[in-house]
Structure prediction request, 207 residues.
Amino acid sequence: MISGPARTIRVFIADKELLNLQGLRALFAHEPDFEVAGTCTDSTLLTRALLDSQPDVALVDARMVSAFADREFAQSALRELKVLVLSDPELASHFDTSIAAACSGHVLRTDSFETLCAAVRALASGEPWNPYSDDAIPPALTLRLSPRERDVAALVAEGLSNREIGQELGLGEQSVKNLVSQILKKHGLRNRTQIALLRMSFGRVRR
Prediction:
């Protein structure tokens, strides 16, 4: 039996740096199963551009993901959009929970284009993208975290309260609070919501 043509994946590229955006667009143009549905360099125009282009997957510069916290995005048809965040390793923890909740996966600028394509294909087919296992978490995110702190960080990023985290991990609420404070201090973060994107790198804690 002869199969039909491969499905074309419509990908949207958002990057603050025009040169980066143009480079990615040129690379995707050589992939037969991809179509660049649109591009954007201005985070204030991102939601409208995504609504107009209706892509399967949006590849978004980490510096532009604040657009996903606005009311227009939250109330639009984009709530189910697959969003792949592209970030520098040193910036990977600077997101709040409401933004991270809108994201489906995470790749680093140090990753290869082949890895990026694999991530886009996975999200487009409804599969999760979490390439960083416990044995291969980006060093910039975990260099100074203990295993227990990593567990707590993953659950904070999922939106659990200190009490709920304590119930999951068998810890007292005050112990969880102390661990959260340690995590923030080690990474120089201002509040617990900036831990949110770590969930993309850690995955869920094993029950």
Remarks:
- Strands lie at 9-14, 34-40, 57-61, 82-87, 105-108.
- DSSP finds ten helices and five strands in the chain.
